[in-house]
Amino acid sequence: MLLAGSILLAVFVLPDAWDVPVVVLGAVAEVAETAFWVWFSRRGDARVGPQTLIGAPAVVAQACRPTGSVRIQGEVWSARCDAGADAGATVIVRSVEGLTLVVERKPLPERDETSSRPTANST
Q1: Are 58 and 97 within one domain?
Q2: Centroid of chain to Cα 42
Q3: Under 8 Å CB-to-CB from 36, ≥6 apart: which residues?
Q4: CA 58 to each of CA 23, 94, 122: distance values in angstroms, whole numbers, following the listed order
Q5: C-alpha–C-alpha distance, residues 68 and 98, integer Å
Q6: pLDDT score for 114
Q7: N or C: fewer beta carbons within 10 Å in the chain?
Q8: 46 within domain boundaries
Q9: What is the per-residue pLDDT across 54-92, written as a single tens digit (0 to 9) for each?
Q10: What total of structural domains would you count in the chain?
Q11: More confident of the two residues 30 and 115
Q12: How many whole angstroms separate alpha carbon 18 and alpha carbon 7?
């Protein structure tokens, strides 16, 4: 599109001295744009299927003791949690077996003991 526009400008609008530079500039811009879009379209493989859920957090919809269901990315999946998880708990998907997600409870964040102590005010 840029090349066609630059050719039209060179033929009908611009003085003769500008014809070649404008067409060359339009061609360079056209090649650069094409190279960018080729790079952009090949930057990564498409990820599809249930394997993309591995490592993602899910919320337990029906208690998993050891089987139940979880809600993940707007869908409800059958799940198995060997350690057990109550409804509303957050779990992490570890693997997929057929149409069942194998999940484990999300570890609690470690608590920093130094931040819970009151600080001494120097007055």
Answers
A1: yes
A2: 16
A3: none
A4: 56, 11, 46
A5: 15
A6: 58
A7: C
A8: no
A9: 999 999 999 999 999 999 999 999 999 999 999 999 999
A10: 2
A11: 30
A12: 11
- Residue 35 belongs to what domain range? 2-40
| 90 falls within a domain | yes
Provide the Cα torsion 50, 67, 91, 54; round to 10°. -20
Q: Are residues 62 and 90 in the same domain?
A: yes
CB-based contact 61:86 (threshold 8 Å):
no
Residue 35 identity (one-letter amino acid):
A
pLDDT-derived band at 112 (thresholds 50, 70, 90) equals low
Q: Distance (Å, rounded) from C-alpha 24 to C-alpha 106?
A: 59
Query: Rounded distance, CA 27 to CA 24, Å?
Result: 5
Q: Are 19 and 59 members of one domain?
A: no
Please provide residue 79's backbone torsions phi and psi, each rounded to the nearest 5 degrees.
-145, 155
Q: Which bin fits 47, alpha (ψ -120 to 50), beta or left (φ > 0)?
A: beta
The predicted pLDDT at position 34 comes to: 94
Please give the distance of CA 106 from its chain centroid, rounded to a whole number.
Answer: 21
